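Usage

Read records sequentially. Each one opens with the input sequence:
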Amino acid sequence: MTDTTSQNTLTHLDEQGRARMVDVSKKAVSNRIAIAKGQVLMTPETLQKIADGDHAKGDVLAVARVAGIMAAKKCPELIPMCHPLLLNHVEVNFVMDWDRSRVLIEASCGLEARTGVEMEALTAVSVAGLTIYDMCKAVDKHMVIGEIHLSYKEGGKSGDFHWDKE
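and closes with the structure output:
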């Protein structure tokens, strides 16, 4: 069965309306990069505990970084119809925003393939945020994970993308 859908059409459905994994075998291999961002809002006290490393469960950001990287690698096990990819790199970084009492999360994924790595980057950010929440929920149940979005994409048939609202 061939993929006759256009770039502006949802492509996880076949001609009969059944779910399927998109056939990317005819696409050219190219360098693909995706960057996703998100945040975890918290109390200033929780942010300070994370910054000081003064948390009973250990280094929150180190654990969240590893969780995000592992999640990107397991994306096809978590997201239905996501292609299994051999990632060349995954990076997860954090910035403490003291003015807004939040941890900013950024994940970057890259590879050479026939399909992009947007879902891997978004999954890395999501799981890193959930890990921060999990490790800190005993001291701050009011944390909010949010603003998760694709920030940058390079490569592929649909071209480059840059989120211009930052």
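Summary fields computed downstream for this record:
- Confidence is low (pLDDT under 50) at residues 1-8.
- The first strand starts at residue 30 and ends at 41.
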